[in-house]
Design goal:
Distance between the termini: 21 Å
Number of helices: 13
Strand order of the largest sheet: 1-9-8-7-6-2-3
Largest sheet: 7 strands, mixed
CATH topology of the largest domain: Aspartate Aminotransferase, domain 2
CATH class of the largest domain: Alpha Beta
Structural class: alpha/beta
Number of strands: 12
Low-confidence stretches: 357-362
Helix content: 40-55%
Order of helices and strands: HHEHEHEEEHEHEHEEHHHHEHEEH
Strand content: 5-15%
Radius of gyration: 21 Å
C-alpha cells in the first residue's frame, strides 16, 4: 500500500501494442511517433482541450520534463514554489537543478485540504520565478476547480511567475470532479504555462519511460528549446504503450475508475467502522488516500508503527513535507480484500501501541 502503482492487469490495447512491437523486432531507438496526436485526441475527449500536437515535445518522465522547463524559464538560484504536503521527488529535483524551493502549504481544515491563495500570493511576492503546480494533487487527491486555477493564473500574471503543471494524475479524475488543464485557461499566465503529462500512472506503465511537455499558446518557444537529446532518453516501448493508451484505452480506463471508486469508498467505510479516529476525505483523483492519523497517538511517522506492529506498509507522511507529520499515504489500487486486510492490520498496530507493547523487541 506504499508505492504508487496498481495491482491491475495491463490495458489490452497497451499489451497488444507492446507484443506487436516485440514480434516485429521494433525495439530500437525512440521517435515520438503518433504519441503527441494521441494525447491531443485524449485531451479533447476528456477535457475539452485541443493542444497543438505539433508543439508537444517528448521527454522520459514527468519530473525530467518539469526540470527541463524550469531550466529554460528560470535561472540558477531562482525561487520555485511547490505546495506542501507534496510529492517528494519534486523538491529534490528542483533543488538538484539549482533552484530554491519555496514551500507553500495547502490550507487544511475539517473539510480537508485546499489551495491557500493568500499564502500563495505571499510566496509569489517573495521573489518566486516559477510555480510547480501538481494538479490533480499528490498526495491529497485534490482536483483544483476552474475558479481556483483562474485565481492562480491571475496571481502568476501579477507577479510574473511561470507556471509548470504536473498533470500526471489527470486521467484518473473521478466522476463528479473535472480536470482543467492549466494551459487551457484564458489568461496570459496560463498561455505561458507548460503542462507535463504522461500515461504512466493511469495505465500502470511507469517503467516504460515516456511523458510529454505540452505548451500553452505563448510557450511554444520554451518547449521547442528542450534539447533533442532529452527526448532521445525516452523509451520506445514507453512511446508505443502511451500512444495505445491515449488512443485506444478509454474503455479500460473507465472500468478502472469504477473499480478504484469502489475501493476509495470501501476504505472510507472500513476506516469509519474500525479506525474512526483516522481523518479521510475521498480523493477526487488518483488511487492514494491521505490519512490523518494524528488522533491515534502514533507519533510523527505512523507508517513506521503500522509496519512494525501491523506488518502493513503505507507511505510515510513526513516524506511529503512537514505538513505530513502524523499522516500516511495509503494506496488502494488493489483488490478490495487487500484494502480490508490492510485496514485490519492498521487496527492491530494501533491496538499494540495502545497496549504499550515494547517495540524494542522487534
Amino acid at each position: 500500500m506504499r508505492i504508487a502503482e496498481m495491482d491491475t492487469p495491463r490495458a489490452e490495447p497497451v499489451a497488444a501494442a507492446l507484443t506487436a512491437a516485440v514480434e516485429r523486432g521494433d525495439t530500437g531507438y525512440v521517435l515520438p511517433g503518433r504519441l503527441p496526436e494521441a494525447y491531443a485526441g485524449f485531451a479533447d475527449r476528456h477535457y475539452g482541450w485541443q493542444p497543438d500536437a505539433g508543439a508537444i515535445r517528448l521527454v522520459p518522465d514527468v519530473m525530467s520534463g518539469i526540470v527541463e522547463i524550469l531550466q529554460i524559464v528560470s535561472e540558477p538560484g531562482d525561487g520555485v514554489v511547490v505546495n506542501t504536503p507534496g510529492h517528494p521527488p519534486a523538491s529534490y529535483w528542483i533543488d538538484r537543478a539549482g533552484r530554491r524551493v519555496i514551500p507553500s502549504p495547502l490550507a487544511s481544515g475539517p473539510d480537508g485540504h485546499r489551495l491557500d491563495l493568500d499564502r500563495l500570493e505571499h510566496d509569489f511576492a517573495s521573489g518566486a520565478r516559477a510555480y510547480v503546480l501538481c494538479n490533480p494533487h499528490n498526495p491529497t487527491g485534490l482536483v483544483f476547480t476552474r475558479e481556483e486555477l483562474t485565481a492562480v493564473a491571475a496571481l502568476a500574471e501579477r507577479y510574473d511567475v511561470r507556471v509548470v503543471t504536473d498533470e500526471i494524475l489527470a486521467p484518473l479524475t473521478y466522476p463528479g470532479a473535472r480536470h482543467v488543464p492549466f494551459p487551457s485557461l484564458d489568461n496570459p499566465a496560463a498561455a505561458r504555462s507548460v503542462a507535463v503529462v504522461s500515461a504512466s500512472k493511469a495505465f500502470n506503465i511507469a517503467g516504460l519511460k515516456a511523458a510529454l511537455v505540452v505548451p500553452g499558446p505563448a510557450a511554444y518557444a520554451d518547449v521547442a528549446a528542450v534539447p533533442q537529446e532529452v527526448s532521445e532518453v525516452a523509451g520506445l516501448m514507453g512511446v508505443l504503450a502511451a500512444e495505445a493508451a491515449f488512443a485506444h484505452g478509454d474503455a479500460w480506463l473507465g472500468n478502472l475508475l469504477a473499480a478504484l471508486d469502489g475501493n476509495r469508498r470501501l476504505l472510507a467505510a472500513q476506516l469509519a467502522d474500525q479506525l474512526p479516529g483516522v481523518g479521510y476525505h475521498l480523493p477526487r483523483a488518483g488511487y492514494t488516500a491521505w490519512l490523518d492519523c494524528r488522533a491515534l497517538g502514533l507519533g510523527d511517522d505512523p507508517a513506521q508503527v503500522f509496519l512494525r506492529r501491523g506488518r502493513v506498509g503505507v507511505g510515510s507522511g513526513p516524506r511529503f513535507g512537514a505538513e505530513g507529520r502524523g499522516f500516511v499515504r495509503f494506496n488502494f489500487a488493489t483488490s478490495p480484500d487487500r484494502v480490508a486486510e490492510a485496514v485490519s492490520r492498521m487496527v492491530t498496530a494501533r491496538d499494540h501501541a495502545d497496549a504499550g507493547v515494547d517495540e524494542r523487541r522487534d
